[in-house]
Amino acid sequence: MKELDHENIVTLYDVIHTENKLTLVFEFMDKDLKKYMEAHGNQGALDLKIVKSFIFQLLKGIMFCHDNRVLHRDLKPQNLLINNKGELKLGDFGLARAFGIPFNTFSNEVVTLWYRAPDVLLGSRAYTASIDIWSAGCIFAEMCTGKPLFPGTSNDDQLIKIFRLMGTPNERTWPGVSSYANFKNNWQIFVPQDLRLLIPNLDSMGLNLLSSLLQMRPDARITARQALQHPWFHEISNPNPLMQHLADPYQQQQQQAQQVQQLQQVDPQTYR
What we know:
Blueprint (H helix, E strand, L loop, with lengths): L11 E6 L4 E5 L4 E2 H8 L7 H20 L2 E2 L8 E3 L5 E3 L6 E2 L19 H4 L8 H16 L9 H12 L28 H4 L5 H10 L10 H5 L14 H4 L2 H18 L6
Antiparallel strand pairs: 1-2, 3-5, 4-7, 5-6
């Protein structure tokens, strides 16, 4: 994890070995995204400017992981950490795995159920970086609404909740889907729903990005690098344009007081 040195990945400072314990020393972060949404959201739903900043930072962290051939495999709001500067960082790499050539076959026991990709739920064990992209889409939607997108209670229930919104897959819409171990021929047939009915406050560009992240077929999902180039992010000129907006109010007051003090030194008559 020390090799994953990036502004949107929590920093591991030290690993302390003792006779009976292994202690990991990480940088301090104020809260996780779930708690942030509870504290600052409207019934959990965040302002869209904050959503845009957080999903942008999340995708930057994911892109860095994937560029370094690492799958996180457990992205969820509780594993995304926020500091008082409004910086979001990926944490908890306990399920992370390296991927590469030759192609690895992994366990399908990955990712908290609500954020698990349909290909994994269907029994795929030869998955790609696209599983992290699906999780990012689920988190994106949850930040917009304040509610989990697919709060399933079991593997089958999770699939049904996904199908109700995204449509039941078949060989025409997802070639090869019937070969998955958990595929069933007797599933109820659902047609895809319009995401704007679920998230009416998200503009058309944002909905287009969300749809690109939440593609049922793993090979159809956008990559993190492609997502960061999406037009929805064109107004963002730095990784965290909302840093001042999200900063701690006390910290902002201190900064303002320092600025006034500096101005008084320049022109004491004007800035009293």
